[in-house]
């Protein structure tokens, strides 16, 4: 390990420790008052992310002022975790993997999460929320999407957001004229979509499944099962790898009626580049989560906003 790599790793460990201390005070903030208004905030979580999840869901719900909570247990939630969730999230329903049949889609790697959401969307507007997110400002675009019953997604990155929604032929010609650009399964799947039946009439977006809204729709799993079968045949056994679910989520949303890509200067991912000046929502992707101290600063700010709202 080089000296630079050593110091980088050390700084991330220190930032993770600082975040671990800061996030504990989320337990001192007021509980969510759920609303039975047809909106569900859905997440898959486990014991390791309980406190960050509470920051994610409380900060979003405080700005959105809509919805109730539902969860998918990754198999690690303890009795104490569930007691915290009952108190802070309005006694949410918690599903298990055993509650969700997956065939003909893969098992594991977040597929149960996506399939549960698609089952729920028959009667609800469902928002998928990762635990490593923080909401810091008004979310008018989300409110408008719910009111118009339009699906939405967070952009994958600056360049992805510039591309937006494309037909599959447009995506292939723009991004994958020579096949996959990296070995990750998402790139492999996207490049393979040229071979799926009816590709010319289908759309795609390189979005991020960490924050996505699924409009009410009677279609349920229809589109994702088609995707799993067609893309699965094109890719082969690798379709079972982690990352295929995000491609499926992108595909479903892109082919919903009038989907929305959230403006990337307000709803953003924390990559290596600088953040926009005034983001309303930040997704702290694992690789870069603790870089530059942003995650701990945002967590502290979100908790302070929750305390301030209580004092009003």
How would you describe this protein?
This protein is an alpha/beta fold. Helices cover 42% and strands 15% of the residues. It has a single domain, classed as Spore Coat Polysaccharide Biosynthesis Protein SpsA, Chain A (Alpha-Beta Complex), CATH 3.90.550.10. Helix 3 links the parallel strand 2 and strand 3. Helix 1 packs parallel to helix 11, helix 2 packs across helix 11 and helix 9 crosses helix 10. It is globular and about 55 Å long. The model has no long low-confidence stretch (mean pLDDT 94). InterPro entries: Nucleotide-diphossugar_trans.
In short:
The chain has 312 residues and is of the alpha/beta class.
Summarize this structure as a short list of keywords or feature phrases.
312 residues; alpha/beta; Spore Coat Polysaccharide Biosynthesis Protein SpsA, Chain A; seven-stranded mixed sheet; 11 helices; globular; Nucleotide-diphossugar_trans; transmembrane helix
Amino- and carboxy-terminal Cα gap: 51 Å
Range of strand content = 15-25%
Assembly state here? single chain
User: Strand count, sense and closure of the main sheet?
Assistant: 7 strands, mixed
CATH topology: Spore Coat Polysaccharide Biosynthesis Protein SpsA, Chain A
H and E string = HEHEHEHEEHEHEHHEEHHEEEH
Integer count of domains: 1
- Roughly how many Å is the radius of gyration? 19 Å
- The main sheet orders its strands as 3-2-1-4-9-6-10
- CATH C-level class: Alpha Beta
Provide the helix percentage.
40-55%
Could you list the spans in which at least 5 consecutive residues all have pLDDT below 50?
Answer: none
The name of the CATH architecture is Alpha-Beta Complex
Task: Tell me the structural class.
Answer: alpha/beta
**Averaging pLDDT over every residue, what do you get?**
94
* Tally of separate helices: 11
Assign an overall shape: globular
Counting DSSP E segments of at least 2 residues, the number of strands comes to: 12
